[in-house]
Specification:
The chain is of the alpha+beta class and 193 residues long. The chain has helices at residues 3-10, 36-47, 96-113, 125-128, 146-160, 164-171, 180-187, and strands at residues 20-23, 29-33, 51-60, 64-74, 81-91. Strands 3-4-5 form a 3-stranded antiparallel beta sheet.
Length: 193
């Protein structure tokens, strides 16, 4: 196999039989994915068993699980090892025993997508390319609206600063320091003179 043949192999569109479509309750398409079992079969087919998968980090939090894994494949032409990381997150469900294998599968599928189109790289680009606030990554609102009220107060304070440095200093004192809409407000401010 030549490098050109290898690149062409990875840039093929996946066949319809490889792809599973998940529908919303109204019957419209929600997202598409290639199951882990098919990805594993394709790795063996292309890399001849010269692949390795390892979960390197997993975190259990109050709301769910987060993980990161590394997929390594041996380039069939050059013999160099290629490493792709994959990340995934799941909300807690009733049966925690099933959550961990599912998290591992999500991380694996995410890493495989980075190999090329054949592994699903172009599936769901309309979702993957969205900014986080476009699909609901705002703070969770408690029944008494305390988080919502906290954010509104912090947002008002951030907007009152004249420059990005002062707004950033203030934000670091809050629990919203990693919240993207807060960072967006800061980046819209001029630099301190």
């Amino acid at each position: 196999m030549t490098t050109e043949e290898y690149v062409a192999l990875l840039n093929r569109e996946p066949t319809p039989e490889m792809i599973i479509e998940v529908k919303k309750t109204d019957g419209t398409l929600d997202y598409k994915f290639i199951p882990k079992s098919i990805l594993q079969k394709e790795l063996i087919s292309i890399y001849g068993g010269s692949d390795q998968w390892e979960i390197i980090r997993d975190t259990v939090g109050k709301e769910g699980l987060w993980g990161t894994g590394v997929l390594s494949v041996k380039h069939p032409v050059t013999g160099e090892w290629i490493r792709k990381t994959g990340m995934g997150a799941l909300r807690h469900e009733k049966n925690m025993k099933l959550n961990y294998p599912s998290l591992e599968a999500q991380c694996f599928k995410n890493a495989c997508k980075k190999l090329g189109v054949w592994f699903g790289q172009t599936l769901n680009l309309d979702i993957d390319d969205l900014e986080p606030e476009a699909f609901g990554m705002e703070p969770k609102i408690d029944s008494d609206h305390t988080i919502s009220a906290q954010w509104e107060a912090i947002k008002e304070k951030l907007e009152s600063f004249d420059n990005a440095a002062d707004a950033g200093d203030f934000l670091r004192t809050t629990s919203f320091q990693h919240y993207l809409p807060a960072k967006k407000i800061i980046s819209s401010k001029p630099l301190k003179k």
